[in-house]
Amino acid sequence: MNKKIIGVIALDPFAGKAYADQVRQVFGSRAAVRNYSVMDKTAENMERCDLYMASTDAFDAMKTWPHGIPEDAQKMEIQVTYRKEAIRLLREIPSGTKVLFVNMTETMAREAVTQLEQLGVTHLKFILYAPGCALTETAKIAVTPDEERYVPKGVSRVVNLGQRTCSADTMIEAAMRLGFEDILEEEAFKQYQESVCTNTYYFDRMFDRSRRLETQFDILMEVLDQGVIAVDEQGNVYAMNRMARDITHVLGEQVLHQSGASVFPYIPFRQCLEEKSATEPKVVRVAGNLVSVYVRPVLRRESCVGAFAILQKFSEVEQRQNELRGQLMKKGQGHRAKYCFDDVIGGSDPIVRTKEILRKMAQTDSPVLLIGETGTGKELFAHSVHNASRRKGQPFVAINCGAMPENLLESELFGYEEGAFTGAKKGGRPGLFEFAHQGTLFLDEVEGMSPALQVKLLRVLQEQEIMRVGGSQIIHVDVRIVAATNEELEKKVEEGSFRQDLYYRLNTLPVWIPPLRERGDDIFLILEHFRRELGGRFVLSEEIRQLFREYPWRGNVRELHNVAEYLNFTGHTVITAEDLPPSFQMRQRHWAGGKNEGHTVADSNRIRSSSLPPDTAAPRTASDARMVLLEILFRADREGRRIGREGIIREARRRGFSLTQPQVRKMLHSLEQEGYAVISKGRAGSTITQQGIRLLQESKQIDT
């Protein structure tokens, strides 16, 4: 094999010798390497070579190839780079450090720094310097490609990167020109290539990132618990994960590069690609299973470059929704039934019969309607029905329909989408029907629901579907309804304020909850439970026990609890008539009426004046209740505030009169119609009018 001659030409002799040594390192005995320099004029008298390699700065200095080089000779330009060791030294310098970059000329310094930045050295602030340049900034560190002789005085540290070296691309080009392609497989070239940096730093980073992303994409596709099928802009399948193969019963290798619309005609790939928008989720039957399918486009600027189809078995979709609801409930919602039938205290025939009936009804999924006076424990029975049913491990959600304005009740029950109304939470919010999925929803005071909400509730009972406020998507729910009312719904149906069809839906399994006055000695069992709960030590005299048996207990168990709490603070161990609460005494007097001839008018006046606050009288009739309500509105008006129904109920209780939400609502409506009060919408409360104040003055309820 004839030895080839390579002529290496550089601007200065030092660089020429360095480049020549590098070429010798790669080509070894295959070539004789001669080095020449422009500065020492050896480049003007070069012998004939098989290949002439000139550095960029040498070529710039010569303007053209020397005339002594034959026209037919092979010529190439040397591309230089840094050794990896030089880049490592620079990376050890802290980020943001000012460094002086020193080279023979300012142009060479600028070109060298540009190349460093192309190689990823962007963390340093370079200050260019060459002999003859003005030094406008100072730095403690100087960096130079083997030009230490030009480093100005005063620099405390010099980092010598060494002469830049021929790039691996230059060596490859030289080998190809000389017919030494096999040299690229030799160890000498591989070692040289490993020691120098490539000028494709950012390309390599992008390639590595792309390769990592592709690997991550493959991993993500396989760990997803949803089926994913990806198509390109032409609609051809290029990816399909294991879950999609399981759902569709199609092998991924068989469909790659085929039309997604042809292989999967039930997936709207073409629609998504043409409209550049997501398709609505739909349920289709695939391989014998119901599958939820939707397609999302991949957009780059305004172009659609592909799409992803998401598939999930419908049963798994419902399971996921249940899990999400469960997570939301754990974040403070706590929708769990607390009581069971064993917590219902009493052994009287009415209550035993009620529990037996409800235990049987609990085994069905039909709606249950609990009918009873206020305070009879309807919610306690609702909890018990849920815990005795097959749904006991699922949510129990309770809401009072009479205590909320219509718009608030609707959003609480059905949820809302983002932007549905002013103040709507970002991302929307599930409603109580969704929270109660596969469980029980207890609607207390269901008679307080507006006609519009009655229509929506009827649809839920018929179709088991809801739609959030401001939404368009139908959501399937599986909810058992237990409703409660303390009013006669049949009468409200006759009046037209409650839908007849909804009434018959709710009235599938009606149950009357017996009032306390019909439960005999259950009164004392319940009172004893309250006494222990409150830590009291009192006992009832026989006289009081008989009085309790005859007392009407209009507030039922709730009123009994209030009495127990009052008796706990009398300080007496044996309770007598003098220890009873004032309201209890007055109502008992009114109930007894004229039956007890031993009571005189003077006795009644004495008890009345000693038992009640000086500015109020115990209400005894519906008319009295109206006047008490007006007087409460008057006091609130004098204090500069409005008062809502809950506040009215609390104030009335303080005056010894127990009112329910429907009763207060009905009385307020009547007073407004007569011009005595004004009812505001929402939570703004109600207020008394001047006409109402005059009525109080005329009836001597307030001072004139």
UniProtKB/TrEMBL annotation:
Top-level taxon: Bacteria
Start and end residues of each stretch annotated as Disordered: 594-620
UniProt-recorded Gene Ontology molecular function terms: ATP binding
SMART domains: AAA (SM00382), PAS (SM00091)
PROSITE patterns membership: SIGMA54_INTERACT_1, SIGMA54_INTERACT_4
GO BP, one annotated term: regulation of DNA-templated transcription
Keyword field: ATP-binding, Nucleotide-binding
One Pfam family linked to the record: Sigma54_activat
InterPro entries in alphabetical order: AAA+_ATPase, AAA_lid_NorR, P-loop_NTPase, PAS, PAS-like_dom_sf, Sigma_54_int, Sigma_54_int_dom_ATP-bd_1, WH-like_DNA-bd_sf
Residues in Sigma-54 factor interaction domain copies: 344-569
Protein name in the entry: Sigma 54-interacting transcriptional regulator
Organism annotation: Candidatus Enterocloster excrementipullorum
